[in-house]
Amino acid sequence: MTVYAVGDIQGCYDQLKELLNKVRFNPEKDTLWCAGDLVNRGPKSLKTLRFLKSLGDAAVCVLGNHDLHLLELAAGGQSYRRDTLRKILKADDRDELIEWLRHLPLLHHDKKLGWCMVHAGLHPDWSLKKAKKRARKVEKRLQGAQWKGFCKQMHHRMFPLREPKRGGDERALFSAAVFTRTRYCTRDGKFNWDVRSGKSRNRREKPWFEHSRLAWHRNCHVVYGHWAAMGLVVDKPYVLGLDTGCVWGGSLTLAKLKPRGQWVIAAQTM
């Protein structure tokens, strides 16, 4: 079995199919890991969701911020100006797609392979065990009967900058932001949710994977997306960044994951 990982698809269905054709992806023996942001901004979000859902166990997808935004809209939230999600919300199979989406994880870990996948990042102080626990808490809310109320809280929400000491919705919202929105943070766990491109002006803030004493790195390497402005990240310890900005006119990148943190770039679109 070959495990391939792809960055943010964001509705770029044709480019995804191009990559899979290049490597002769076979869902009967291969697995495709998708690092979140399956939908939005691109032209074929509905077709992308239908295709990934049809792959069954051959597709392992985690939720990204745009995927959570689709859940917000399905829960009755407000859209953004550049959204391209209307076809999904009006589709005959909308309910089945939303049900499938809200049961996706925020973190996937393959112990044997030695890789885990998130959309955006991890807290420097979270061990892999703690990260899994935080992910499960959010997933429980997304999959529960009150999921719509929880999703609505994420629209235009001022996420906590630090992890709340107590549990509840505030901690769940913080955890959701870490998994799906992280770029810069301080070593002691203060997150900057505002910087989207360019560098942080705060010298104490670094990309989440560049701090010393990262608790999670003892157990795995991390493949992630989300940070199109940084592009392909292949030269940092413990991480592989695969958001190469396809929806912004860049490319879509497919990597073959190997045991013990090894990988090779398998294909890229032009």
Automatic annotation (TrEMBL):
Gene3D superfamilies per the UniProt record, alphabetical: 3.60.21.10
Membership in a protein family: Belongs to the Ap4A hydrolase family.
Entries under Pfam families matching the protein: Metallophos
Organism: Mariprofundus ferrinatatus
GO-annotated cellular components: cytoplasm
EC code: 3.6.1.41
Residue ranges annotated for the Calcineurin-like phosphoesterase domain, each copy included: 1-148
Database matches in InterPro entries: Ap4A_hydrolase, ApaH, Calcineurin-like_PHP, Metallo-depent_PP-like
Name of the protein in its database record: bis(5'-nucleosyl)-tetraphosphatase (symmetrical)
Keyword Protein biosynthesis (UniProt): no
Catalytic activity: P(1),P(4)-bis(5'-adenosyl) tetraphosphate + H2O = 2 ADP + 2 H(+)
Known role: Hydrolyzes diadenosine 5',5'''-P1,P4-tetraphosphate to yield ADP.
